Amino acid sequence: MLSLTPSQVRLGWSAANKAEAIRLVGQLMVEAGFISPAYVDSMLKREQVSATFLGHGIAIPHGLPEARHLVLQTGVVVVQFPAGVVWSEDGHAHLVVGIAARSDEHLQVLANLTGVLDDEALALALASTLDAATIIQVLTSAAPETPAEPEFGGPSLQVLSPSPYGLHARPATALVEVVRRFRADVTVHHEGRQANARSVLSLLRLGARAGTPLTLTAAGDDAEDALLALRDAFDAGLGETPAAPSALTPEPEPTAVLDYEGTLVAGLSASPGIAAGPVWTFQREQLVVEEQAADAAREHQLLEAALAGAAAELRQLHDGFLLKAGAQRAAIFKAHLELLDDPEMLMESHGLIDTGLSAGESWRRVFEDRAQGLAALDAPLMAARAADLLDVGRRVLRPLARVLEGEPVFPDHPVVLLAEDLAPSDTAKLDPAMVLGLCTAGGGTTSHTAIIARSLDLPAVVAVGPSVLDLRDGQHCILDGDAGVLVMGPSERDRAKAAHQRERIHARREEEKLERYQPAITLDGRRVEVAANISGADDAAKAVEAGGEGVGLMRTEFLFLKRDEPPGEEEQFHAYRTMVRALNGLPLILRTLDIGGDKHVPYLSLPAEANPFLGVRGIRLCFEREDLFRTQLRAILRASKEGPVRIMYPMVAMPEELAKARAITESVRREVGVAPVDTGIMIEVPSAVMMAEQLARDVSFFSIGTNDLTQYVLAMDRQHPVLAPRADGLHPAVLRMVDLTVKAARKAGIWVGACGGIAGDPSGAVVLSGLGVTELSVAIPSIPAVKALLRGLSMADAEDVARAALECGNAGEVRGLVRGLLARKGAKA
Known about the structure:
Blueprint: E1 9-10, H1 18-31, H2 39-49, E2 53-55, E3 58-59, E4 75-88, E5 91-100, H3 107-118, H4 120-128, H5 132-140, E6 156-160, H6 169-179, E7 185-190, E8 193-196, H7 200-204, E9 213-219, H8 223-235, E10 263-266, E11 268-271, E12 274-281, E13 284-288, H9 296-325, H10 327-340, H11 343-354, H12 359-375, H13 380-397, E14 402-406, E15 415-419, E16 435-440, H14 448-456, E17 460-462, E18 476-480, E19 485-488, H15 492-514, E20 520-521, E21 527-534, H16 537-545, E22 551-555, H17 569-583, E23 588-591, H18 619-624, H19 626-639, E24 645-649, H20 655-672, E25 678-683, H21 686-690, H22 692-695, E26 701-704, H23 706-714, H24 732-748, E27 751-754, H25 762-771, E28 775-779, H26 783-791, H27 795-805, H28 811-825
Parallel strand pairs: 1-4, 3-5, 12-15, 15-16, 16-17, 21-22, 21-28, 22-23, 23-24, 24-25, 25-26, 26-27, 27-28
Antiparallel strand pairs: 2-3, 4-5, 6-9, 7-8, 7-9, 10-19, 11-17, 12-18, 13-14, 18-19, 20-21
């Protein structure tokens, strides 16, 4: 119960007009420590938006929702104006109750005011009493055990809590969405308790079970309209029962049927396959926040930025899950979004910042306190929403905190590995024999985790959100890399389904393995070469064993990582020669040193860069450290005596860079005394695409690096915690760049390959081939599957899909086109 002390009641005051009265009330609220002075201006603005005069001489001035961060503490003050103050056309205010609403505790005071409104004599008595205790008793007395139907001097509505689970997260979210279309203040009453209908958390705390009566009251100029809309929403079940779809906005059909009975944690598919086993967290994380902050204005900005970032993540998850499983199962993410926009949580968090706390500490206190309250509810379904709030809370807290990490300890049995994300250096820490699959909180389909998973032939799901890091080690799960979900607490039926799916995948891969040496010739006789992406000398033999038709990308920078000095010429020569010999006549494309961006080498002493992806990396680094470039070229050219070697320059953005790289290479070639070798460039930046016709005159081939091209075309860092899931190489904007590159290459008579992540993705392999890419360089484990996929299609079909893909609006539509084609052909994307 909200306390009301004599110091919060003032008798016998006077004011010339409503504005003066509100300022007097506001000053008393400031002195009581309830609000910041700026909140008074918002109270004045509220009068222009909606009425605060209840009738019988009572007014309840309060601020607008956007000013709730100026509320320091929930509280009310009461000022008596015996002579009255003109408040509205409806009458004079004699008793003014100023409200600082930081939680829903003040709602009991408002509920008690309904008794005054029903009793004109009591209202007159309060307007003239000389005893503050009388006002305190009336406004703070407990509600009767069986309250009468509440009335706020306005319309009300009787409804039943929705079936089958009551007013839980999804229907509460639907209710809030309806209320936010109106200006009216709507309150939901249930068994003597009240809730702000604009707050999902406030509604959840009612604990209203299915079928229990609710009373909705509204105050404001559009109160009647609000209640009419709410009546229709309750009649439709608040989303709990299927409503007839609108002809104008049809619900998208799910693209995959997810009928697991366990709890689904939705993400993005990064590597196909299915795994089942216990979870294990790779990185132990502790989010640490500073308690105090000196600059409150900056902390307000930091909190708003963190909230915006978390909202972007949740919208992405909602849209992705909507396509996978339909609107009802995706609705939980809409509920999470509403939690982020909960007016009470925002108001309290901003209020704590104004007291000197940091944004991180303020937010942590608020969401943890609310989660504890939900966990204490009797209804299990309502209490379970505490986990949702903790998930949402951590999403916001992460950018406001320092992340402390400890060294991971691995168990002695296979596990599904959970992590924030995996960097290239993390691969050395992984024991593939102990990893069944990978699941990360962040990342995207082009992230390092996705690349690692495909190279290790592990199923992987990325971008599932930070709550995955709270799972207890040892809990059983199913990781579905095809559908992009983690299933926690799977049922026996789920486990049986997963086992059956694993058997089907195993059988299909065994069949693909038997045919892995057959070329990828389409049904209408067109051939696409399928080569391997490798990172070390040992991988060359594995590529041949997997059916690779050469190496389309050897990442030579891996020779330079995790050491204190660069490799010398002899060390590099030995590594390159080992690869050439292992390939036994198949071509080897060696990409020259590509360090910078997300790959850091301390011994190079490169200056810190504000944006390393737009700085000294790739061929630019080779020019900065020409000594390293020449040493590497000497080793490569010496190895070319052993077999077909091609040199590929990374991150070429303009013709003068290519001319300089070729001149240095030619100089070194003359020194070594070997025959010329084919040279090509990576197409990774938009400028290279736009200059492709000119660049094509001086090279033997192009190789499209779809990972970097995607992030530069879409302006989305593929490691960005919010944007990474959207950095999809099948976005039509990226595909149009591929199309332009292929056309320029054809005009010059050279071939085009692709070595980025989507080359090994089934949808990517089909679309790239259809656009005219004639070589796909993929992770070694993907080689047999990609070759089998292309052998089951005609190039004419792939070209039709590719042309249609260029006209799509987003990557999801492109993937849908390919799924449709493969479904007709009996294949699987």
